[in-house]
Amino acid sequence: MASAELQGKYQKLAQEYSKLRAQNQVLKKGVVDEQANSAALKEQLKMKDQSLRKLQQEMDSLTFRNLQLAKRVELLQDELALSEPRGKKNKKSGDSSSQLSQEQKSVFDEDLQKKIEENERLHIQFFEADEQHKHVEAELRSRLATLETEAAQHQAVVDGLTRKYMETIEKLQNDKAKLEVISQALEKEAKECRLRTEECQLQLKNLHEDLSGRLEESLSVINEKVPFNDTKYSQYNALNVPVHNRRHQLKMRDIAGQALGFVRDLVTALLNFHTYTEQRIQIFPVDSAIDTISPLNQRFSQYLHENASYVRPLEEGMLHLFESVTEDTVTVLETTVKLKTFSEHLTSYICFLRKILPYQLKSLEEECESSLCTSALRARNLELSQDMKKMTAVFEKLQTYVSLLALPSTEPDGLLRTNYSSVLTNVGAALHGFHDVMKDISKHYSQKATIEHELPIATQKLITTNDCIVSSVVALTNGAGKVASFFSNNVDYFIASLSYGPKATSGFISPLSAECMLQYKKKASAYMKALRKPLPESVPYEEALANRRVLLSSTESREGLAQQVQQSLEKISKLEQEKEHWMLEAQLAKIKLEKENQRIADKLKSTSPGQAVGPAQENASVVNALGQEEASAKAVLEPVHSTSLIGVLTRTSDSELPDVESREDLIKNHYMARIVELTSQLQLADSKSVHFYAECRALSKRLALAEKSKETLAEEMKVASQSISRLQDELTTTKRSYEDQLSMMSDHLCSMNETLSKQREEIDTLKMSSKGNSKKNKSR
């Protein structure tokens, strides 16, 4: 098939190549014709250029001639201008000279006029020739440009076609090479397939022998060891505990919870509807506070007063059904025993509706017979009577299907399993019919209430009661719509969940077997819980991880501490060097201070006595101050602390004035203490930074290790998932292969049995023939 397709493809490509080749010949011919036309146009252009050059030469000669004539005219005008004053002066001269000058002037004028006309004519001819030449030149240039563009386009088309032809040729050659390679590969595969078929035949033969031996062994084991097969009989298989499906149970519990909420809404709406209907009977058409109502309405009111005893059990039955659906049970129709209770409560409510339906219809007829009833109100009452009949019929239909669904849990032969899906579908249809009926009732009741509100005798009590009835009917309509949509959305799940039960059977046989199965399931779960023993104490995984992190952090902190010690030693050496440097600086400053004090003292001594009066007084005051300081220094005074930007300085009070050396020592000690404090703070900050750096480094390494472990775990998870998928594929393939082999073996065994039976028949026929021959021989 592949070779035929490739041959067809090759033929199509050859046809396209022949078509393109013919088009190429036509295009080449067109290109040659266009080139000839362009050459002819170029020759015409050359001829036009030559004629233009000739005309330009003639024009140049004419312009030169015109210039000569213009110069001659100027000379003649100058001579004329010179001759005029002479004529004025020589007016008395002879007539011959004047006549001669006039004749010459007339001749010159004529000649000049002729030359001017000829020059004008030549100018016109030259202008016309120039315009014509320009027009022809523009046309020829435009035509030449179009021809060049067409020639370029044709050339591009030709180049594209040649390129396309070359590409197609190369493609065909490559396809041919590929086809040759494919054919060789197919030949190799055919040879390998032949070898494989031979090997498979051998393997099949070996497998047939192996499986036949295994089959005999397994049959002997089954016959000897297995007392009975419980899955063979449906009665026994129904007692087997099915596989627990927690998702199914949670889903069913959720659905039961939603159904319980919807039923509660319906129960509330029904209670309100019956209660407000009872109130309305007491008000309209006759108010019981003013006059006695009819016996029919009194009996109808009594029955409606009992509605709670029939409606409330519906909610209780649904609540019991919801409580029976738990996570530990198996929820199917055979095990939902509480559905029978709900069906019985629904049946009692249907009996209540049947009991009040005639009274309701007669009450509506009584309203129609009243003198206050209009034609529109009478029509609404008739529609409501029809709606009430439909509502009762819908409830009866719904009760029939619910009772059918409750049969599998009580009477297994009452409903076949094949009819479950149809019953569920009919329940959904009945719920939708109930919703439609309630919509009609809501519509007609609202219209009736509007008409009654317009009556002149309508009291506020009647209006309020009608509004309450309409609101209850609307709530009942909404509840019915919710229930119908809820059941329609889940009916497929209900139908699909009917197959949930024991394996290899169509379902549970009877409610008794389902109950026994549930008891066995409880015993099995209790046994599984008893088997669970506490595991021996070991190091938890999280604690082991924390210990590993502590171990890694300790190694990191050891390295960090070693680095911190090295850095501290280097800083100590630097500080020692700086200390020596500053001690030298302090000694130099002390020497400079002593020299400065000596210089000041020498300068004070060298000053004059008159000028030293002030300083002497100052020295005296200083001496007195020093004496006072010495006297006060003997007294014990408390020190005073002053704070500044350079630190806390401890000094004496203002009354104490130490000498210069003590002051310098105090300042020096203060600065030294401040330097020591700053260096200690600096060392503390450096140590903290080193510690933080070590912690950050350890955390980064931990993060790197965590990332590596994450990547390794992800790779292992990927490999594990791949291996799982591969094993699943291998399992499916082996299962299919074994199934195929078993089917083939069974077919082969059947064929062998047939051949054996044929051989036996042939042997019997031969025996019969041999017996007949022996009898004949004896008779002879």
TrEMBL record:
<feature type="coiled-coil region">
    <location>
        <begin position="696"/>
        <end position="730"/>
    </location>
</feature>
<dbReference type="Pfam" id="PF10205">
    <property type="entry name" value="KLRAQ"/>
</dbReference>
<feature type="region of interest" description="Disordered">
    <location>
        <begin position="84"/>
        <end position="104"/>
    </location>
</feature>
<keyword id="KW-0967">Endosome</keyword>
<dbReference type="GO" id="GO:0016020">
    <property type="term" value="C:membrane"/>
</dbReference>
<feature type="coiled-coil region">
    <location>
        <begin position="137"/>
        <end position="196"/>
    </location>
</feature>
<dbReference type="GO" id="GO:0005769">
    <property type="term" value="C:early endosome"/>
</dbReference>
<keyword id="KW-0175">Coiled coil</keyword>
<feature type="coiled-coil region">
    <location>
        <begin position="3"/>
        <end position="72"/>
    </location>
</feature>
<dbReference type="Pfam" id="PF10212">
    <property type="entry name" value="PPP1R21_helical"/>
</dbReference>
<dbReference type="GO" id="GO:0003723">
    <property type="term" value="F:RNA binding"/>
</dbReference>
<protein>
    <recommendedName>
        <fullName>Protein phosphatase 1 regulatory subunit 21</fullName>
    </recommendedName>
</protein>
<feature type="region of interest" description="Disordered">
    <location>
        <begin position="754"/>
        <end position="780"/>
    </location>
</feature>
<feature type="domain" description="Protein phosphatase 1 regulatory subunit 21 N-terminal">
    <location>
        <begin position="11"/>
        <end position="112"/>
    </location>
</feature>
<dbReference type="InterPro" id="IPR019343">
    <property type="entry name" value="PPP1R21_N"/>
</dbReference>
<feature type="coiled-coil region">
    <location>
        <begin position="558"/>
        <end position="592"/>
    </location>
</feature>
<dbReference type="Pfam" id="PF21636">
    <property type="entry name" value="PPP1R21_C"/>
</dbReference>
<dbReference type="InterPro" id="IPR049372">
    <property type="entry name" value="PPP1R21_C"/>
</dbReference>
<dbReference type="InterPro" id="IPR040024">
    <property type="entry name" value="PPP1R21"/>
</dbReference>
<keyword id="KW-0694">RNA-binding</keyword>
<dbReference type="InterPro" id="IPR019348">
    <property type="entry name" value="PPP1R21_six_helix"/>
</dbReference>
